[in-house]
Amino acid sequence: MNIVLFDGEERENLLPLTFTKPVASLRMGVLTFTERWEKLLKTTISYETVPYLAEKFPISIQSENIFINPSFFPSKKLVETIESLAIGQSIVYNDKLVAVKTIDNEPIITNDLVLFEEELIHIKNSWDLFTYNFQAIEFDFELLTEGKTSQPISSTNRVLHPEKIFLEEGAKVEFTILNASEGPIYIGKDAEIMEGSMIRGGLALCEHGKINMGAKIYSGCTIGPYCKVGGELNNAILMAYSNKGHDGFLGNAVIGEWCNLGADTNNSNLKNNYAEVKLWSYKESRFVKTGLQFCGLIMGDYAKSAINTQFNTGTVVGVCANVFQSGFPPNLIKHYSWGGNSDAPIFSFDRACEAVEKMMERRKVDLTTTDRKILEHIFNLNNK
User: Fold this and answer.
1) Is a pLDDT exceeding 90 seen at residue 83?
2) What is the distance, to the nearest Å, from the Cα of residue 175 to the centroid of all Cα atoms in its chain?
3) Residue 384 clears pLDDT 70, i.e. is over it
4) For residue 267, what is the enclosing H or E element?
5) Is the pTM of the predicted complex or chain greater than 0.90?
């Protein structure tokens, strides 16, 4: 079974997170969409995405292919339906293509339709990632822990519902409060929760992630691989290799990869008048209604904030932006901004890459030539 995860129309609504990666590489719950489908279908996966990302995320086409739109979160029934597809059959949900088995090289709705009627979670917009993250954590917890035995929980911890807490090999947790009464707590391989932290599930702490001393972590949080967090988090996702290591609040937010939030960085997630939050749409080039009262911060990869940065409710930060100027930054911060304000200059591309390289070197990861091409493409968007 040759599986290709394709970028549908949802990709543009998931910017700035998908400027640097396809939809399938986004993290929600414990896993990325790619990792989840690989585990469910027990096979490797390739991508159909926009041309400038295709070198890093290539497609593999065979004589028979199953194209899946990863913005539809899987269910047991959906997996079974995909596995039973015949050549030329399409799965459609609310008139949208979910999957198709075809001899063609692209995903097109065929005449032989399978109408999927069970309710699915559909990630249509960037804010849907944190909105449905709790459900994703529950799904992944079952997927990853079924038939396995957790490492023992140290007696130094105070624990509620230990049956819903799972520690992978090498995980370290001491002198913390772990409350899984409302949702599961997953602690990945070689991850650590330091002393004095208070944790309320659902939580996904991925491999090599770290929660610093005295942190307060509310439900619906994902702390991706090699991420470090401290302070207060509520319903927030950090994709991978990003840090929010100090005090400050992060809520109803999605932070990309290789980001750093300086000490006492805070985001507002509720307007003073309790009004519906609007968020910038790159697709429509305007602020659009989210339908949410609580919506905080969406930050693209490689972005950074200085100490004491205060993000307004419903702020979008572009790729490689540096936010450090005084006052509240605007609700849209452009790619490679050097300061954060609307009139801030654009950071030099070469100097931005130097900073990225130094940051990645600390984690023993290389900035490849392909990565640099992607970043240059995004840099040039500022001139359009």
Assistant:
1) yes
2) 29
3) no
4) strand 266-267
5) yes
Residue 6 near residue 47 (C-beta atoms within 8 A) = yes
Q: Which helix (H) or strand (E) holds 278?
A: strand 278-281
Instruction: Provide the number of structural domains found in the chain.
Output: 2
Phi, psi of 248 (to 5 degrees): 130, 160
Amino acid at 132: Y
How much is the average pLDDT of 187-207?
98
| 3-class SS of residue 369 | helix
Instruction: Say if residue 1's pLDDT is above 90.
Output: no
Q: Helices (H) and strands (E) in the chain — how many of each?
A: 7, 34
How far is Cα 109 from Cα 91, in angstroms, rounded to an integer? 8
Q: Structure tokens of 372?
A: 């640099």
Does 224 map to a domain?
Answer: yes
* Same domain for 156 and 13: no
Q: Residue 248 to residues 63, 262, 288, 311, 318: CA-CA distances in angstroms?
A: 53, 9, 27, 11, 21
Asked if residue 282 and residue 357 are part of one domain, the reply reads yes
Nearest CA to 218 out of 173, 263, 188, 251 is that of 251
Give me the DSSP letters along 71-124: TBPP-HHHHHHHHTPPTTEEEEETTEEEEEEESSSS----SEEEE--S---B--
Q: Residue 163: give the domain boundaries.
A: 146-383
